[in-house]
Write a structure and sequence with these properties.
The protein has about 250 residues and is of the alpha/beta class. It contains 7 helices and 14 strands. The chain is globular and about 55 Å long. The structure holds ribulose-5-phosphate.
């Protein structure tokens, strides 16, 4: 990991940093707003963009729309990773392009539940992990936007989301128990693809790529919320000192 620098990402973000210096209680949402704004610098003008899902991405979509409205960015459209983001993009008048209509994307911007010092992530807290991985797979560059609490030395404190086929749920709970994981069905949640989610507690994920590769072999798993193959190339991290740019 290279710490490429610190920035304040525009006037609103600068105001946030000034607040950070004077206010000991800068909220997680304010840190998310800082990185959402900073991510605009990574959006190539004139290209279709990949857009993730979550509260940080919601703020990013709002910032994107404001930049387009100001005439400072030309965006032909976005490939969305969820119904939630699709609705928000459309509300702002941003065209949503089907994933199947593009061969490659230059950039994909998304949040994370955890990220380690090599750009590996846990994702899926918003239940959009499968479509997120599909869109990330189309992209040359994954730009992760996250508040500083998401940076961890080892993945796994945040329960690992796994999208599964319903009939395999009990046997997958047992299989996770056999490797020391406590898999809990996420109550009342089905993904945009109509599948349940297991949140797996208690895994210390010291080798994310090996674990992702192994779990991808388990029958009944649709998508594991480990993004090691599709890790971030850049992470914009919101901290009390401003936006820290990590390059992996
Ligand atoms: C959704 C995700 C999100 O990127 C992740 O949950 C982070 O969300 P937030 O920006 O709300 O903290 O993976 O499936």
């Amino acid at each position: 990991m290279i710490v490429a620098g610190w920035s304040c990402g525009g006037p609103e973000a600068a105001a946030g940093i000034i607040r950070a210096m004077t206010t000991p209680t800068l909220t997680q949402d304010q840190l998310k707003a800082l990185v959402a704004d900073a991510a605009l610098a990574h959006v190539p003008s004139g290209q279709v963009l990949g857009v993730g899902t979550g509260s940080t991405v919601d703020l990013f979509i709002d910032a994107l729309a404001a930049r387009i409205a100001a005439g400072a960015l030309q965006l032909p459209g976005a490939v969305s990773s969820s119904e939630r983001s699709t609705q928000r993009l459309r509300r702002h008048g941003i065209a949503v392009v089907e994933a199947g209509a593009v061969e490659r994307l230059g950039v994909y911007v998304d949040g994370a539940d955890e990220i380690d010092g090599r750009g590996h992530m846990i994702k899926g807290g918003g239940a959009a992990l499968t479509r997120e991985k599909i869109v990330a797979d189309l992209a040359d560059r994954f730009v992760c936007i996250a508040d500083g609490s998401k940076l961890v030395p080892v993945l796994g404190r945040y329960p690992l989301p796994v999208e599964v086929v319903a009939m395999a749920l009990p046997q997958l709970v047992r299989r996770f128990a056999a490797i020391g994981g406590r898999a809990v069905p996420r109550a009342g949640v089905l993904t945009d693809n109509g599948h349940p989610i297991l949140d797996v507690h208690g895994l210390a994920i010291t080798d994310p790529l090996a674990m992702e590769t192994e779990l991808n072999q388990w029958p009944g798993i649709v998508t594991v919320g480990l993004f090691a193959r599709h890790r971030a190339q850049v992470c914009l991290l919101g901290t009390l000192q401003g936006v820290q740019t990590l390059v992996f």
